[in-house]
Amino acid sequence: MKKIYLIPVILMSLYALNIHAQCTGTATKTTKPTAIGIIIYSNDAETIWNALRFANYSVSTGDTVKIFLLGKGVDMDSMDSKNFNIKEQSEIYLKNGGKFLACGTCLQSRNVTSPKVCSISSMSDLYEIIRNSKVLLTF
After folding, report:
1. Which of 1.10.730.10, 3.30.420.40, 3.40.1260.10, 3.40.1160.10 is the CATH number of 32-138?
2. Which of 30, 33, 54, 118 has a C-alpha 20 to 30 A away from that of 97?
3. Model pTM?
4. Distance between CA atoms of 97 and 43, rounded to whole angstroms?
5. For 44-53, how does the pLDDT look when each residue is reduced to its tens digit (9 = 90+)?
6. How many Å from the N-terminal Cα to the C-terminal Cα in the chain?
């Protein structure tokens, strides 16, 4: 009779250990670097700040991150916020080898001819980021 209870207890213990391993992050330390594409199409300071914080964290773990600014996202180049230090986060990203690509048409529609932080790019560049990224996030 005791053997009948032993099997479910063992299975539940193994399940609990698996959940614990996933929650402690031990599985991510052994994974290979990931190619992450980030598309920023918002001009909300907090949203951009969080996207950049995530990009910087991802780079610090060894992942490759490519950021494309689209639509209102190209406003990031000239944004300043007291509560969300976008400039600081973008400088960290650039210092660690990151590059900002921005939609040329979106920049042109805002009469921006010489962006400060980003390179003028095209839909072809956006397409390449999407095709080559294992993970794609939009903000």
Report:
1. 3.40.1260.10
2. 30
3. 0.76
4. 23
5. 999 999 999 9
6. 57
